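Field notebook, page 343. I keep forgetting to write these up properly, so this time I am using the form the group agreed on. The chain and the ligand, fe (ii) ion, are recorded exactly as supplied. Prediction of the bound pose follows.
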Amino acid sequence: MRKIIIYTFLITIINFISCSSIPKNTELKTEKSDFIIAFGSCNKQSKANILWKEIAKNEPNLWIWGGDNIYADTEDMTKMREDYQELRNQQGYLQLTKNIPVLATWDDHDYGLNDAGIEFTKKKESQELFLDFFDVPKNDSRRKREGIYHSQIFSTKKGSIKVIVLDTRYFRTSLTKAANKRYQPNIFGEGTILGADQWNWLENELKISKTDFTIIVSSIQFLSSEHGFETWGNFPHEIEKMKNLIKKTASKNVLFLSGDRHISEFSRDTIEGLNYPIIDFTSSGLTHSYTSYSGEPNKFRVKEVVKEISFGLLLIDFDKKSIVMQMRGDKNILLQELKQVYP
Ligand SMILES: [Fe+2]
């Protein structure tokens, strides 16, 4: 009898401790997943990133940087190196990435110049610093070619995922200003985002891919374009080229990740002849966001725009062929969720 009383007392104490350790209003992940990808973008190295510990709570298998990983905005490579060092000193980031792989693309602010493309004079030097920060080995292909595009396959017992990281900066034709200070889409089929070499590389990457899912990381949004800021929509022919390539290579279950916008949203479109929809999951604003956002059109949007700081999660289930996409914020609160079951 005494033993039973002690046992009951212990269980009560354990329950109390485990319940009280879950903060109020926090939704923990409900589905068990085979592989979890966490990603985010727009991270001011000088600001405290309160989301690192929240991201870690989800125990991701991989962290992906979506660009603007630091705000360097400089041609001074000493300053850029110091900016990277400031990020390297962040305990939360070090803790999160201590035991998991990290993939990254860059956007304009870590590339070195706001909204810049091919014209940025320090792109070679900036690439070297980027690769140094991510400890890319000296014999890696990215050390020998222009641009930071790259791919990696992650295999589990149940299935595999290919992550294709695009470089939307190094080769991108300079943008055309519009009267309202935003950009004018090039409707005459001129200019490029990826450049010829990267397009050829991408075609081969898609052609040879045998994985269950393909995640394409683009710093700028692939689908949403009505806002007129930086987007693939400034080069409509490049969107068509990408869609045709996905179809031509019969690529299985392609999903886009993007950042840059300081808001997070899901966009969805279809490609004629493709048996699954193309989703562009924009997750932007790790340390700062577009709090004064008052709405913008996006005919592809699904669900609501998140304007507070957030990170993205992909919960991948190989048996169900599904990806649960989540936007999460401070205290790991679930802000939006979209589930896609693939063929
Ligand atoms: Fe950006």
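OBSERVATIONS:
- Residues 3-30 have pLDDT under 50 and may be disordered.
- Residues 32-341 form a domain with the Purple Acid Phosphatase; chain A, domain 2 fold (CATH 3.60.21.70).
FOLLOW-UP: compare against the apo run.
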